[in-house]
Amino acid sequence: MSSLEQLVYDPESPSAAAGALLTALERGNWVRLLGPKELPIDTNKKGLPAGPGLVLSTGGSSGARQLCLQPSIHLDRSAAATSHWLRTIGLDSAQVMVWNPLPFQHVSGLMPWWRSQRWNVAHIWLSPSLMRDPQALIQEAQKHSDWESMPMLLSLVPTQLGRLLADPAGVCWLQAMALIWVGGAALPSDLAATARALGIKLAPCYGSTETAAMVVAQSPERFLDGEEGVGEPLDDVELRVEANGALAVRCNRLAVGRWQQSGDRTLMPLTLSDGWWRSGDAARLQGASSSPQLTLLGRMDGAIHSGGFTVFPEQLEVRLMAVAREVGLPLEAVLFLGVQDCVWGERLVALVCWQDAAQSRGGVEALLQKLMALTDPWLPAERPKSWKHCPDLLATSAGKWDRARWLAWLNGSEGADSSNG
C-alpha cells in the first residue's frame, strides 16, 4: 500500500530533496515537497490511490488552494510530449542542458528537473539569490564546462524575465539560451517587445499543476515574428472553449484527483464523465481546429462584473506595469482586487508596492498620484476606486498572486483605517 512522504527542501540547495524524492518514488509512495514555510498535512490512507506520484499544491491564483495528485507516469508523459514539441522546432531533447530557477515544490520547478532526468541531460539549479544578481548569475553560469556547448533551455516567470531584461548582464545571459519558456502569468507586452528587439528566444506557454505542466507553447520563431498568445497545443492535448468562455483541456496526464488544502482528505475527481477538465481560465481559440492558437484572457473566478462590464484584473495589472515602466515610475508590483459596490456591483481596488529605493526616499503619495493618472484614459469600470500602498506586496515564488491573502490584508487595512478615523 502506498504511503505519503512529506519532504522539506531548502530553496538554496534543492539537490538533497531531489535525491530523497527519487528514493521515495522508488518505494512506490506519494511524495509532497514542502517549501520552508509550508506545513505537513494529515491524511488518511483511504484517500490515497496507488503510487508512486507527487502531491502538488495548485498555484492558488483564485484563492482556493488545493492539492493535486499526479502519478509519476503522468510526469513522464508530460516530459515525452515536451520532447516531441522540441523536435518540431528543430531541437533534440537528448542534446540540451536545462537551467532551472523555479521553486521545486511547484510543478513549474519540478518539471524542468523531471524532464532532465527522463532525457538524461544536464540540469542546473539556480538559487533565488543568484537570480537577483544578474552579474553573479552569468559569471556562475560561465563556469560550467558545458556553457554554450549545446542548446540551453530555461523556464521563467515574467517577473524574473523583467529583472533580467533590466540588466545588461541579464540580457547577455538570456541571449545565450536556445529557448526560454515563459509562463505562470501573462507576458507583459512591453517585455515581449523588448525581448523581440534583443532577439531573445522566448516561448510563451500555458500549463498547470492539473495537466502536469505545459500543454500549450509558442515557438520562439513565431514569437520573434510578432505572434501574440501562447501558441498551440502539444501533440497529446485537446482544447476547447466552453459556452461560458472557460478553457477546457483533455489529455492523458490530468491529475487523478485533488484534495482540499484543509479539511478531510476525500479525493475529489478532477474531470467530469467526458474526461474534460474545466480550467477556470477564460480563453480564446483562433485558427484551424487542427492547430488552434490560444490566447488567455484571465481567471474566470478572478473576473469582476462592474457597471455592466466584465473586467479581468490580470490584464489591467499587466497593462499598468507596462505603462509605468514606459514612463519610468519605480513600480515593483500592483494587484487589482474586486470589492462589492452598491452602485456598480463590484469595483476594483489597487494595491501598490514601490521599489525599495522609492519607498526609502519617501514621496510615495506623489508617486501614487502619477500612477493613478496613467489610468485616466481607461474605461470607468477598469479604473480602481481606491489605491492602497502595500510595501509587503509580493507574488508567490511561482509568480502567481494569492488573491485571498491580499484581500484579507485589504479588509484588515480598511478596518484599521476606520478604527483610526
Written account of the structure:
With 421 residues, this protein is an alpha/beta fold. The chain folds into 2 domains: 4-299, ANL, N-terminal domain (Rossmann fold, 3-Layer(aba) Sandwich), CATH 3.40.50.12780; 304-420, ANL, C-terminal domain (GMP Synthetase, Chain A, domain 3). It contains 13 helices and 21 strands. α2 crosses α3 (107-119) and α5 (134-141) packs parallel to α7 (168-175). The longest helix is centred in the C-terminal third of the chain and has 18 residues, at 403-420. It is globular. The mean pLDDT is 88.
Strand line-up of the largest beta sheet: 6-5-7-8-9-10-11
Q: What's the overall geometry?
A: globular
| Cα radius of gyration in angstroms | 22 Å
- Our measurement of the CA-to-CA distance between the termini, rounded to an integer number of angstroms, reads 60 Å
What does the main sheet amount to? 7 strands, mixed
Number of helices in the DSSP assignment: 13
